[in-house]
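Exercise (ungraded).
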Amino acid sequence: MDMTHSVQLAQLAFPDAVPSITMAHYLFVSAAMFVMGLIGFMTRKNMIIMFLCTELMFQAAGLALIAFGRHHLGADGQTFVIFVLCVAAAEAAMALALVVLLFRYRETLSSQAWKELNG
Amino acid sequence: MDTIISPIALYLICVLGAVGIGAALPRRNKASEIVGGLLIAASVGFGTLVLALRASEIEGGLPNFFFYPFAILALGASARMITHPRPVYSALYFILTIIASCGMYLLLSAEFMAFALVIIYAGAILITYLFVIMLATQAPSSASEEFIDETDAVSREPILAAGIGFVLLAILTTAMFRGIGDLPAPPDETLAQESVLVNLPRKVERLLEREGLITNTERLVRNEDGTAAIDVVNRTITLENTDLGTTRTLEADQWPETLTAGNLDRLGYNLMHDHPMTIEIAGIILLMAMLGATVLARKHIELEDDLKAAQARKLGESMNPEMKSVPETGNA
């Protein structure tokens, strides 16, 4: 029984290949959200909105991870979304502390105020 | 492998979206925002229509109906988030994006992550953002409520950025829609779900006990590697009596209805069994972020002299409203 059992589990892990259009839907939404976050990061001058746009990119990555996790019916995708969430929380804490610090130096949120920082 | 979406339609969607976002990004000319919004709506609508038509050609290819409203809401809210000139509204539109993507998480049967995202992202992280926006925004110096700061009202190189972004989208989606057909098919859902039960013998024992199917002296037979002797394919469970040393098998018709591995069981098992080290690393990252934020926020700032003067003028102005206001100089 153990033998057949492990064979069947192995078959679960490597099924036959067929096209999947539902995945394409989720991946398209994820890619579009990521690109919008990228455009927002490039164009907006307000530092808080720039960091919000990075959160949007995290969110898009999370959606793709969950969609792939669902496709393979494993929990790995969701596990990695937990870690993405963790990194996003750490990033928010650091970024907001930095923004408050920069705001106290120049009394403005504009990233243009720091344009002499061009390496 | 036939393509999922025709390249002409895909690039048309990208061009429409790029022109729309480029026009809708904040600038002095307000009229272009409406045109941009219409173009974005056309792009999202056309994309949805093309994908839905293609999916309806394939047997069982259509996603759950609720996918479409959630996707349109998520994309529309994220477009409005990057184009809205006021930071508070941007943050609120981002919360809407998160809630819409939580809807999609539910459709992807990731229930725990959907609710965790609402609590952590929309509830905690975004409220912190809103708090900092309120904290770090100058009080409007002009009397008009419609006044928007120059920083927020004008974006930097909107057309160029939108062009670059949507070229990236076109490349990403081309690669995806050519290659996605080679993805393996999803395995049988119930089997894949319940195969984790093999690794959770104590949970199964507790559940069987609650259902009254086993007595106190009985336990699940463990294989050499510690997994339980459960055959999820044939739905049989092998039990042994620890007092008598005999074994018996619960047949498929005795398999209790409640014996399923839910989303949380699988997620928890995956997290603790397959990725234990990453939990430690995540803990270290969060600790370092906390320390870093504390160190950064503690720093005492010496304002430059002209800023000090500007602050003093502002204070004097608010104390004597009749006093003639001094025009403020730019800080850049």
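Further reading is listed at the end of the chapter. For now, observe: The helical segments of chain A are 2-13, 21-43, 47-72, 76-106. The domain at 21-108 of chain A is CATH 1.10.287.3510 (Helix Hairpins).
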